[in-house]
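So, does this match?
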Amino acid sequence: QVQLVESGGGLVQAGGSLRLSCAASGRSFSRNAMGWFRQAPGKEREFVAAVAYSGAITYYADSVKGRFAISRDNAKNTVYLQMNSLKSEDTAVYYCAAAVSVVPTTERAQYRYWGQGTQVTVSS
């Protein structure tokens, strides 16, 4: 059974940092691009960041560029999202996802496997 399990969410003050982790099990995702999405209450799920299978190529939403960093450790089958300089508008449930391709993409439809999400709350 394929599973993606996010962890590392929580409550943090504006300006603070959190590091999210996404551990995959059931199969290796070393040949898949991986991504992070988020969904705030009453809003659509939106793209945050993605990384190629090798880790060499990354994409970011404009709203998080320069503040967030995505990385991966294929030996551990784990993807990370380092979030710095957090703002209240970053408050959302954050989801990890595995794409069907090796190339990172911003399109939700290109992601086949999804985690259950982890809550990030930024207080102002």
Q: What stands out?
A: The longest strand covers residues 18-25. The two ends are 40 Å apart (CA to CA). The CA atoms of residues 37 and 56 lie 19 Å apart.
